[in-house]
Specification:
Strand content: over 45%
Largest sheet: 6 strands, mixed
Order of helices and strands: EEEEEEEEEE
Strand order of the largest sheet: 2-10-9-4-5-6
Helix content: under 10%
Distance between the termini: 40 Å
Number of helices: 0
Number of strands: 10
Radius of gyration: 13 Å
């Protein structure tokens, strides 16, 4: 059974830094599976903002240069280092496989990040 647990969200001020962490079941976190961070802001759709697959990474333009995604396959852990946070980064953040996801895919509860100006 796939399990996903996100943590590290907080209320911070613009310009602050924050690190999010995710742990997942071994089935999902095998090295060959691309993993990513998604976020969903109020009134918006959920979007992929960062992904990692082996030595390759992807960042959405809105976070490029500010966020860094890392993974620890031995410990089934995915981190997101967020620097120079902006109010528009306010959202619920989720981790999951960085592949097209459908209605049968499992999501965790996410972790709330709130950035005030």
């Amino acid at each position: 059974q796939v399990q996903l647990v996100e943590s590290g969200g907080a209320s911070v001020e613009a310009g602050d830094s924050l690190t999010l962490s995710c742990t997942a079941s071994a089935t999902l976190f095998i090295p060959s599976n691309p993993m990513g961070w998604y976020r969903q802001a109020p009134g918006d759709r959920r979007e992929l903002i960062a992904a990692i697959n082996g030595g390759n990474t992807y960042y959405h333009d809105s976070v490029k240069g500010r966020f860094t995604i890392t993974r620890d396959n031995a410990n089934y852990k995915l981190d997101l280092q967020m620097n120079n946070l902006k109010p528009e980064d306010t959202a619920v953040y989720y981790c999951n496989a960085a592949v097209p996801l459908g209605p049968d895919d499992v999501w965790g509860q996410g972790t709330q990040v709130t950035v005030s100006s």
